Structures are given as C-alpha cells and as structure tokens.
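Session log. Operator J.P. requested a structure for one protein chain; no other inputs attached. Running the standard single-chain path with token output.
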Amino acid sequence: MMRGDRGGLLALLASLLLACSEPSPQLAPVAEVARIPDLSELDPGFATAVRDAVAAVERDPSSGAAVGALGRLYQAHRYLDQARRCYERAAELDPGTAEWPYYLGFLAAGRGAQGEASRYFQDVLELRPSYWAARVRLGNALLAAGDFDGAERAFLAARSAAPGAPWGELGLGKTARRRGRFETAAEHLRSSLALDPGHRETRYLLAMTERRLGNGARAEELLRGLEEAEVSNLDDPMMEVVLALARDTQSMIRNANQRLADGDHQAAERLYMEVLRLDPDSYDAHLNLGVLYGLADRNREAAEALERAVEIDPNRADAYALLTIAYIKTGRAEEGLRQLEKALEIDPDHPRAREILNSLSGDQALPG
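Structure written below.
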C-alpha cells in the first residue's frame, strides 16, 4: 500500500473513531417537555402526584410505563397537550403496548382530528384485536370523517366481538342515518335499545328516526322517557384506568372553602379555578367564587360567577341571594331586587335572602 493511501486510510479510521466517540443526540427528557409550568398553582394533592410521577420518569427515562403513567395523570386532569407528549414518547419507548396509541386516538378524536384518531385506533387493533372498544371508537372516528363504509365495517366487527352490548348496533344505526337509510337505521336502533333500554342517545336517535318515518306517536313515547334515560358509558377498561385518577372536585371545594374561611383568598381562588378547569359546570365552585369576589369587593366578577351558577342550576336560592348584593353594589339595584324575589320564591325562609330583605330600606321594596 502506498504511503498516501495509508495516510488516507488512517485519516478515515480516525474520523470514524471520533464519530463513534461523540454522544448521539438525545431528546429532551419527557418530564421537561411535558412539565406543568407552576405546580404551586395546583391543588396540593395533585401537585404531589405529578411530582411523584415526574420523579419516576427521571429515575428511568427509558421506561414507557413510567412516561405513560405520567400521561394518564395529565389526561385525567385535562392537561391534554402534556398528556399527548407523554403518550407519543411512551409509544416510541414501548411500541408493543396498545394503551399509548389508544389514548392518542382518544385525544385526537377529542380535538376533531378524526383521520389521525382512526389511524391510532387501527394501530391498537393490530396490537390487541380483541379490544372491541377500540372498534367502536374507530367506527365513530370514521363516521365523523365521512367514511361510511369504513365505519360500517368497524361497527359490524364491534357487534360480532360483543354481541350483548348495544354499541355495534348503535353505530350501525348512526351510520345508516348518515346515509339517509332511515328504515335500516330504525332497525339497528331498535335492536340497540332492546339491548340497553335506558340508553339516552339510542332513545333520542330512534325517536328522531321514527318521526322521520312518520311514526309520530312512537317518537313522542320515546321522547317522554328521555329524561329518565341514562348516559351509558362504553365498557372501556383502558379509559377507566385514566378516570380512576381524576381528583374528587368536592374535596377540592371543601379545601378551598377552608382556605377562604382562613382568609387565604389567593389559595382559595386558585383551587376554585382548578375545579372549574376540571368541571366547568360546577355550581358550587361558581357560587363560592362569587362569595370570594364579593368579600374582596370585586363585585363585577362576583356577578359574573353568580350568573353562571344560576345558569347551571336555576332552582337553588343561594346564587340569587348573593347576586342581589353583587347587582346592588354595581349600580343595578332593580335587577338585584328581582334576584332577591326569585330567591324568596324558591325558598321563602332562606336565611341569607331574609337577612338581605330585612337590611333593605323602605324605598327598596320588592317589585311587584
């Protein structure tokens, strides 16, 4: 070998050795990528759970199970972007586990990305063909995307996999309705209702279908029982694991109430707002925020919170009574007195309403 060739070979070998010695580029740890910015803003119990889950990831960043467990915790508490990042990493680390694409499909469907959701659910079924809940969710995603043939195949497969459950027939009924095949839709929906007579969605869709077919009396009969019907949940063990992690918002409200009673308004407000992030329709959280804002003389905010409480449950006197004060303090005395009247109509002996009534001067008598 000539000297020049030997020199070139040595240079090549040196460059290869250097390349091998350089560390390969690493992705940022998922605990950093998916971190909640400020845990101090959260309910202490949840903050501790997040810290523990993040610590587990940091101890073993290559564990798909640890990363996925953090994702479940985030999903259960509606930190959906953080959950998605965790599941994506978990799927990279543990590609043979069906849970991670399943949760990614669920999240994708929730934000309207039905094509993406369909692909994830198909991945789940390749990994676990027996998990028939994924066939139902696949059918729903395909139906929402306008793929009626694909949806029908998915729902037929779901019906075969779980013949005693209503979901396959329900999905076939919804698909037939979208195709304009109302006789076929009615047959499937009747079969679904026979499997689960209390199912609210099936009952409503069948009523609308019967009405479309000219069966008005049957439609009205179905609608009369609608309020007593239930919102049935899909038998879905994977999602049940997530739901089991959700915090008890009533305990959080009790904690916030104690903070409010102790005078720690900032902590109480954070907790009430966290409850509303988890449950936007919490009457108690809106009501107690109204109390907090009233104590802080933030009367416009108090009025807004109490108005929302009234929207959620118009049959409870508490919010009307407190709204009386908020309206009066914001220069809307006449509206305030109308709220007091409503409170007393609901509960003539309501202590707060009676106290407000007794405190009003003679020229602020109730309208009427």
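Operator note: Residues 1-6, 8-27, 363-368 have pLDDT under 50 and may be disordered.
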